[in-house]
Write a structure and sequence with these properties.
Shape: globular
Strand order of the largest sheet: 1-2-3-4
Distance between the termini: 64 Å
Helix content: 40-55%
Order of helices and strands: HHHHEEEEH
Number of helices: 5
Strand content: 5-15%
Structural class: alpha+beta
Number of strands: 4
Length: about 140
């Protein structure tokens, strides 16, 4: 009887370890997908701090980023295109050129995915925080 009990415990431990490993892989993939967008948000915040305003348009933000490529190289960014394309939907990121308030009242949205995945778009705020937002939230904040 004791032997079966020990085997049962070992099986449960093995299943838990397997599930934990899968969870970490999934979480790791999520972090990998959020990383570039988080960096865009941080750089947007740096633009804002340096200029005391948000970028007028995507081109102005891209020019700012080109001037910082030497600093961004440590993150694997060698061109503006490396940074401004979503790893999830493969589309260029939409840069928010306005003061659309994010979920945190202290910040505003900096960028979001053009299409997203599964009805959710990843978005970054001006401090580098990332969130998945629904199509409804996207429409209400960005107006389409």
């Amino acid at each position: 009887m004791r032997r079966r009990s020990s085997q049962g415990v070992l099986v449960l431990v093995a299943v838990n370890l397997l599930l934990a490993g899968c969870s970490r892989a999934s979480s790791s993939q999520g972090n990998m997908n959020r990383g570039p967008l988080r960096l865009v948000g941080i750089e947007y915040g740096k633009f804002e701090a340096a200029n005391r305003r948000v970028p007028r348009d995507r081109q102005e933000f891209e020019k700012f980023l080109r001037g910082r490529l030497d600093r961004l190289a440590g993150y694997g960014v060698h061109s503006v295109d490396d940074l401004l394309v979503s790893p999830r939907d493969g589309q260029p990121l939409t840069i928010v050129c306005g003061n659309a308030k994010s979920r945190s009242e202290r910040t505003h949205w900096a960028a979001c995915e053009k299409t997203g995945v599964g009805g959710q778009r990843m978005a970054a705020d001006s401090l580098g925080g990332t969130s998945e937002i629904s199509e409804e939230e996207f429409q209400s904040v960005f107006g389409g």
